[in-house]
Amino acid sequence: MVFGSGAHAFKALDDVDVAIRENEFFTLLGPSGCGKTTLLRLIAGFSYPTEGEIRLHGRDIAALPPHKRPVNTVFQNYALFPHMTVSENIAFGLVMLGRPRAEIRDSVDRMLKLVQLEALKDRRTGQLSGGQQQRVALARALAPQPKVLLLDEPLSALDFKLRKEMQIELKRLQHETGITFIFVTHDQEEALTMADRIAVMSSGHILQIGSPRDIYDRPAERFVADFIGETNFMTADVLSCADGTAQVALPGGARFAARVPDGVRPSGQVSIVVRPEHAELVDPGAGAHLTGRLAHVVYFGTDTHYHVLLDTGQRFILRRQNSRNAGAEPPEGAVVGIRIDNGAAQMLKD
């Protein structure tokens, strides 16, 4: 997808090829400007591709205008009609499609029940909370029973607690309606919480597609590992490799096994990632792979983060879930060891 021409041409999407499954909750995840909203607009029909196809159930819809596509969109600002009631907002799309009155009434009643707003059906949208407005926008988009529902960062305006609640609600709605949801977000936690599969995007490219667990535990490259949650990057030397596992050595001499991505034949120096929760603090002499000084201890309620300044000068973050039975933790400034969980290290592609 190219915007402009000549010297001012800008390639917003470059060789994007993705197959989204029917009845799937699919998330496009990436930083601002990576191309995820452009891809959503192409599917919706608000933009037209400079080349390529957009196929829905085998039919190329790239040339169809938005109103002729079986696709609806929920926008970031909801775009509700303030002079209409909740019921009238939900009915609007059906009225524009010329559906019979009885069908409109039944559909509105069904949508009100689905989003749990029956008691507010006669209230104007300006009198609703942010979460209630979002449910109205969802109901309006779902009422015509589209094949695909596009959601462009619809939770970004909500406060933290309400955003958590609506993540569960969105997943419930997708499951109950059986409609394919394509969800755009830059929030990694939203993607991991709701998606069946995630496509991580950067600079107009899709870097990796997989389940939330695959994306988090088996990132294909450095950007994906860095963008999805916290992680520790290290450089190691490959000693040997067999059956998808490499034996590697860190600069300090510690040796352990690291998973090798498919199709990679590692040699020489490689990059290794370890998630903070896949390592533990130990005494420096208790089989530690790394040693250093505990620089900061950060309490997060559910867990505690330990920032260790390694002997090599690098920083390493560990995360431990808090519990009533947790033992005494070392004080800041103490010399500590770090033991990496067996099989937790992941090698990255070049």
UniProtKB/TrEMBL annotation:
UniProt cross-references to Gene3D superfamilies, sorted A to Z: 2.40.50.100, Nucleic acid-binding proteins (2.40.50.140), P-loop containing nucleotide triphosphate hydrolases (3.40.50.300)
Record GO terms (molecular function): ABC-type putrescine transporter activity; ATP binding; ATP hydrolysis activity
Key words of the record: ATP-binding, Cell membrane, Membrane, Nucleotide-binding, Translocase, Transport
Matches recorded under InterPro entries: AAA+_ATPase, ABC_SmlMolc_Importer, ABC_transporter-like_ATP-bd, ABC_transporter-like_CS, Mo/tungstate-bd_C_term_dom, NA-bd_OB-fold, P-loop_NTPase, PotA-like
Enzyme kind, highest EC tier: translocase
Domain ABC transporter: 1-228
Summary of the function given for this chain in its UniProt record: Part of the ABC transporter complex PotABCD involved in spermidine/putrescine import. Responsible for energy coupling to the transport system.
Annotated family: Belongs to the ABC transporter superfamily. Spermidine/putrescine importer (TC 3.A.1.11.1) family.
Protein name as catalogued: Spermidine/putrescine import ATP-binding protein PotA
Organism name: Pseudooceanicola pacificus
